[in-house]
Amino acid sequence: MFTRAARNVLKTCPPRRGMAYVAEFKPPTMNDLPVPQGSWREHYNQRQRKNNIHLVAGILFTGATVAYAKESGLMVFGYGPKIGKE
User: Fold this and answer.
1) Which residues of 9-20 are buried (b: 16+ CB within 10 A; e: fewer)?
2) Of 25, 39, 56, 62, which has the fewest CB atoms closer than 10 Å, so is most exposed?
3) Phi and psi at residue 78, in whole multiples of 5°?
4) Domain span at residue 54?
5) Which segments constitute the Deltamethrin resistance protein prag01 domain (predicted)?
């Protein structure tokens, strides 16, 4: 019975929100953004060099892992039965 009364009271109370009005709010403009400095091409080349090193390292690591797993017998690719003389 108490829960029914509490439920009705909670339904009538509006939800409270902890938001406040900020009096000195200034909307951001394009002038507030930082201005890029330096050559974009140099920065782009540095990032591409780093990304290419990561790509090559990942490909080499994956290839070495698959080769090791194949040679050690941990991975069987299932090429089918061997045909002919061995």
Assistant:
1) eeeeeeeeeeee
2) 25
3) 65, 55
4) 39-75
5) 31-81
Residue type, 69: A
Domain assignment of residue 84, yes or no: no
Distance CA 52, CA 59 (A): 11
Buried b (16+ CB within 10 A) or exposed e, 40-66: eeeeeeeeeeeeeeeeeeeeeeeeeee
Q: Give the count of domains, the chain.
A: 1
> Is residue 15 one of the residues assigned to a domain?
no
Structural Rg of the chain based on CA atoms: 33
Residue 30, burial from CB neighbour count under 10 angstroms (0-12, 13-18, 19+): exposed
Reported confidence tier of residue 50, pLDDT bands at 50, 70, 90:
very high
Residue pair 70/77 in contact (Cβ under 8 Å)? The answer is yes
Model pLDDT, residue 86:
62
